[in-house]
Design a protein that fits this description.
Elements lengths: L2 H18 L2 E4 L4 E5 L9 E6 L8 H10 L1 H13 L10 E5 L7 E6 L10 H18 L4 E4 L11 H17 L6 E6 L2 H10 L16
Parallel strand pairs: 2-7, 3-5, 3-6, 6-7
Antiparallel strand pairs: 1-2, 4-5
Helix pairs in contact: 4-5, 5-6
The structure holds ligand AR6.
The site of ligand AR6 has 24 residues, from strand 3 and helix 2.
């Protein structure tokens, strides 16, 4: 093959490879893993990677409050005043309105700061996913979207976080629940790629597998 043809075919392969990584689904399509911005997800609830003050910050937290408007912060302040004067502990979750967002609700959870919980980071991160899912199910919601909690400012290694979050979501979906769609949203292609390479979803339960083929 000529050098030019070679370059053409390899660009096709690269293109296919990168678009193939844009979305994957697991557990009969109940889990969708995709590239995107958490603030734009049209689901019943999006999850905020907050801090214990519940009063905003950078990353996902800043983006959600910017896009969602003042109504969300108002409800966070009210929660602090009434139920949580000392703030939201790591691993716990609370729900507020979604303000101007497409999502009706925001579930705020506080991920662990990597290296600051004496080896209990994985347990704490799993609790963020479990408690957020539980809150959504208690309100009978059908769909929820998560960012990759703790993997930004809180420094949790992405591959480890992928193993913990996928196990937590899979465990939750084993039980009876109103939730029919869990989206895991990644901001950058490289982050999505690490997740796809590291998750613990059972491949035999992948949504892509065609049951009729055997
Ligand atoms: N949509 C989806 N994912 C995003 C977005 C977005 N718009 N923006 C960032 N990410 P972080 P944490 C990814 O730092 O590590 C805040 O200041 C990002 O690439 O938002 O839990 C809070 O107030 C990363 O993979 O959350 C806390 O103080 C992931 O979302 C602290 O940061 C989480 O990054 C929480 O830190």
């Amino acid at each position: 093959m000529s050098e030019r043809a070679n370059a053409f075919y390899s660009s096709l392969i690269t293109h296919h490879f990168s678009t193939a990584f844009m979305e994957e689904s697991f557990l009969d399509g109940r889990v969708r893993v995709l590239l995107g911005d958490i603030t734009g997800q049209n689901v019943d609830a999006i999850v905020n990677a907050a801090n214990s003050t519940l009063l905003g910050g950078g990353g996902v937290d800043g983006a959600i409050h910017r896009a969602g408007g003042a109504q969300i912060l108002e409800e966070c302040r009210e929660i602090r005043r009434t139920r949580l004067p000392d703030g939201l502990p790591t691993g716990e979750a609370v729900m507020t309105n979604g303000g101007l967002l497409a999502a009706r609700y925001v579930i705020h959870t506080v991920g662990p700061i990597y290296g600051r919980h004496g080896g209990r980071e994985a347990e704490q991160l799993a609790r963020c996913y479990q408690n957020s899912l539980r809150l959504a199910a208690e309100s009978n919601l059908a769909s929820i979207a998560f960012p990759s909690i703790s993997t930004g400012a809180f420094g949790y290694p992405r591959a480890e976080a992928a193993r913990v979050s996928s196990r937590a979501v899979a465990d939750f979906l084993k039980g009876e629940t109103s939730i029919s769609e869990v989206r895991l949203i990644f901001f950058q292609p490289s982050d999505l790629k690490v997740f796809i390479e590291s998750h613990k979803f059972d491949n035999r339960e992948q949504g892509k597998v065609d049951a009729s083929s055997g």
